[in-house]
Structures are given as structure tokens and as C-alpha cells.
Design brief:
278 residues; alpha+beta; GTP Cyclohydrolase I, domain 2; eight-stranded mixed sheet; 5 helices; 19% helix; NADP; oxidoreductase
């Protein structure tokens, strides 16, 4: 087993051929420091402008019980936004697959192992829940608030630009969402499809401008977590709301989906919540 240490993407398993492990190996987890991507947004690790979590679901989790019988579950992980590292998704998948031929005494033993390994990689406590594959807690739901997607707008800009964000003088409290979010993996260029929810109290956001802004991520290459932080910091700077919550629900890839959220202190998202296409 290798030790956990943040490195650059140059050595990450993402975008490379990989031999899938047959036995447990915590050293497969690949941490990536958050600070490098936050610095260009003016985010200081010592004074984060938000609270939040990265919520992951794993749909390809299996292990052997003490008698060698395969067990399966869906796992939900919650990684705090103030952890020094995020965990690269392909390394996470390889790590989870390393349990496929590993015998464990109980579900509790699996949870304890997952929490310890993920916390070591992230540099902060990570919570783990296991669900049966037909558990009602995983049933799809709908995002609350008004959907922006039926607005008839012209779009010519597909790289993030806060110039699209326009606010009025009226103070409102509203929840808006869109299913048109798309960004791209910063290593492989593969598309990442998602939905985004914005809940705020402050000067009214022009809805057409907000939708153009969200669509402008369409050719942007970045991790899911950093896209959400980018949206949050742009909205905070341009609209100066009293309260703000930004939450994305990304479609799964490789058996993993991720739903990061960032909010001003005191804000909490409508969790747990999963969408039909997740």
C-alpha cells in the first residue's frame, strides 16, 4: 500500500490505461490539492467564502463477505469543502473496485475502512452511507424552484463570463435551476452533464443573463467542484446577495456521480436529492 500524498495531474490515473485491481489497495486514491484551482478565483484557503460539501454516489460497489459471497450496495460519500484535497474520480473508482475480491466481516467493517481511507486522502473526515440497490432513499426527485430552460435566448458565448450576470434593484428571495449545465473533464476532455440549482436572497438576477452565464460553461474544462465554486464566486461578486446557495447534480460517469454544493454560512441544500438522469 502506498501513502496518500497530493500530486499534480501529470501523474494522475485519469486518461491512462489502468489495470483494475483485484484486492484492496488504499494507495490507489489520488488526492489533488484544491488550492491551485481556487487561487485564480481569488479564494483563500484560510478564509473560504463558503461552506459546502462534495456528495458522491457509487453504484459499482461490491465486496465479499466472510464466507466469500459477493455483496453489493450503493454508497453515498460526503467530503467537506474545507478539506485540503479533493479525490480524483478515476482513482476513486479504481479504489472501490479493489474491494471486489476482498473479504470483509461486515458492512460496518467496510464503512469504517472507507471512511478511514477517504479521510486520509482528503485530509478531513468523510462520511459514508450504504444503501441497498432498491432503497427508496435513492428514488429520483425534482429540483425545486423555477426552471430557466424554456427561456428563448440567443447564445454565442461558450466560455465562462460573469459579464452575463445582470442584477436589478428589487430585493428578492427565489430558487432557480437549469438542466443545461455542461463542462468538460480537464484531463480527458470528456463531457460532464449536469443540473444546477441557485437559491439566493438579494438583488434580482436577470434570468436570461443567468441562463447565458450557465450555458457559457459548455466548453469550459474543469473539475465539477471547481465549476461550482466558480459559479458561486461570480454570483457573490456580481450580485452581492445576502444569502446564496449553488448546487450542481452531475450525471454519473464510470459508476460515480458527484453533487457539489457551496453556500454562504447558514445555507444548507435540499439533500439528499437525486435526479432521474443521475
Amino acid at each position: 500500500m502506498t501513502s496518500h500524498r497530493p500530486e499534480t495531474l501529470e501523474h494522475a490515473p485519469l486518461g491512462r490505461d489502468s489495470a483494475y485491481p483485484e484486492h484492496y489497495d488504499a494507495g490507489l486514491l489520488y488526492p489533488i490539492p484544491r488550492a491551485a484551482n481556487r487561487a485564480p478565483l481569488g479564494i483563500s484557503e484560510e478564509a473560504l467564502p463558503f461552506v459546502g460539501e462534495d456528495e458522491w454516489h457509487a453504484f459499482e460497489l461490491s465486496w465479499l463477505n466472510a464466507r466469500g459471497k459477493p455483496m453489493v450496495a450503493v454508497a453515498r460519500f460526503r467530503l467537506p469543502a474545507d478539506s485540503p484535497n479533493l479525490i480524483e474520480s478515476k482513482s476513486w473508482k479504481l479504489y472501490l473496485n479493489s474491494f471486489n475480491q476482498t473479504r470483509l466481516e461486515s458492512r460496518e467493517a467496510l464503512i469504517a475502512t472507507l471512511e478511514a481511507d477517504l479521510a486520509a486522502a482528503a485530509g478531513a473526515p468523510v462520511t459514508v452511507e450504504l444503501f441497498g440497490v432498491d432503497d427508496a432513499a435513492l428514488a429520483p426527485q425534482r429540483l425545486p424552484g423555477d426552471c430557466l430552460d424554456d427561456l428563448d435566448i440567443e447564445v454565442n458565448d461558450y466560455t465562462p463570463s460573469a459579464e452575463h450576470l445582470v442584477v436589478g434593484e428589487a430585493i428578492v428571495e427565489e430558487t432557480l435551476h437549469s438542466h443545461l449545465l455542461k463542462s468538460n473533464c480537464p484531463v480527458t476532455g470528456q463531457p460532464d452533464w449536469g443540473s444546477v440549482l441557485i437559491r439566493y436572497r438579494g438583488p434580482r438576477l436577470d434570468r436570461e443573463g443567468l441562463l447565458r452565464y450557465l450555458i457559457s460553461y459548455r466548453q469550459h474544462q474543469d473539475f465539477h467542484e471547481h465549476c461550482v465554486e466558480h459559479i458561486f464566486t461570480d454570483l457573490l461578486a456580481r450580485a452581492r446577495p445576502e444569502r446564496l446557495l449553488v448546487m450542481a447534480r452531475y450525471v454519473r460517469r464510470g459508476g460515480l456521480d458527484i453533487s457539489p454544493w457551496r453556500g454562504t454560512p447558514g445555507e444548507t441544500p435540499p439533500l439528499p436529492l437525486r435526479l432521474a438522469r443521475q
